[in-house]
Amino acid sequence: MDIKVDSKKKIVVVRRDGVVVKNLKFDGKLIAGAGASFLGNVSVKEAYFGKGCLINGVVEAEKVVIGANSSFNALVCGSALILNGCRGNMVKARGDVRIGNSNIKVVESEGTVFVDGSAKLGKLAASKVVAKSNALFKSEVLKDDKSES
Question: Which one, out of 30, 45, 57, 138, has a CA that is 20 to 30 A from the CA of 38?
Fold first, then answer.
């Protein structure tokens, strides 16, 4: 079995190389082992994905951590940490986003976006951006209406 649920601790664990083919909705924490695949949407309070995960659906969570070399479609979250080597389409966050050496098409945040390493970002919209000198923006950085000139 690929999924284990502890309802007392409110934790769902997807084992290493496990596959979840349907939508996953749980009022608690998700911990996914390395190489796990999610073919549907994921809606949890907190989501922790291990190294090399594949996420085809939309992840909705208050806190999301995407392990190294993972691939995802969309994150809608409070805050996000995206480790090195990840590839993704969209991150939409109400809080802070920290991005390692990854390739993401669209990043939108109401908080601060921290860009570490040589991250490749398509569109970036945030109230504040903190980038290391080797960060690479492929197209445009949009200034939030609330930010100062």
Answer: 138
Identify which of 23, 63, 25 has the alpha carbon closest to the alpha carbon of residue 47: 63
In the chain, % helix, strand, coil (3-state, to 5) comes to 0, 60, 40
Three-state SS at 82: strand
Domain count, the chain: 1
Question: How much is the pLDDT for 143?
Answer: 59
Tell me if 74 is assigned to some domain: yes
75 lies in which domain range?
3-142
Give the pTM.
Answer: 0.88
Q: Is residue 147 part of a domain?
A: no
Confidence of residue 119 (pLDDT cuts 50, 70, 90): confident
Q: Are 66 and 81 in contact (CB under 8 A)?
A: yes
Going by C-beta distance under 8 Å and a sequence separation of 6 or more, which residues neighbour residue 31?
11, 12, 13, 14, 48
